[in-house]
Amino acid sequence: MSLPSQRGAEVGRRIGVGLMYGLWRPRVLGAWKVPATGPVIFAVNHSHNIDGPMVMGVAPRPTHFLIKKEAFVGPLDPFLTGIGQLKVDRASADRTAITRALGVLEAGGVLGIFPEGTRGEGDFASLRAGLSYFAVRSGAPIVPVAVLGSSGRPSRLTKALPPLRTRVDVVFGDPFDAGDGSGRRTRKALDEATERIQKQLTGHLETARRLTGR
């Protein structure tokens, strides 16, 4: 099974930079906290359609996001695949997506996850177990990422986008390890990791809101 393209993800990052800075006004805080090399998991809150592309564009490293398969429609399918993004079936244990995501981390890449699963309040209130599984299994540190300001009043152009030239803040947090250091992957260990993750992500979101005044 081939890994998603690292070169493609870099192309995606450049496209994202152009689009995000062309259409909105991103303000990026804490990007220096992202480890320069080695596997990393971005845990991103999700309240708007542009959250993934925004992080992809402003992150200091190319990112492979796990994206619901429903987004891979028509010409978007070869495009998203070409820029190194990962299609995932959220209705089942998608072993292909899991294997490819772990492959990204084993190769020292950056995996992007929306741990709340679907778009919602973006407050990390309900986490899925997938994030703790990838973190504990790979040993990769998690970097919390808060995207703030993307879910304000909708644009006149389309309800799916925030108004053009709106300021959107992207705040990267301190990397942390989800596991307890034992390497255990039992259900109990994953549940404990999920609790640790939720505490860290919620704390980061509060800090990010304080920093940005959102």
UniProtKB/TrEMBL annotation:
Give an example GO molecular function. 1-acylglycerol-3-phosphate O-acyltransferase activity
Domain Phospholipid/glycerol acyltransferase span(s) in chain numbering: 40-150
Any one Gene Ontology BP term = phosphatidic acid biosynthetic process
S-adenosyl-L-methionine as UniProt keyword: no
Q: Does the keyword ATP-binding apply?
A: no
Q: Which GO terms describe its cellular component?
A: plasma membrane
State the source organism's domain of life: Bacteria
Alphabetically list the UniProt keywords: Acyltransferase, Transferase
Protein name per Swiss-Prot or TrEMBL = 1-acyl-sn-glycerol-3-phosphate acyltransferase
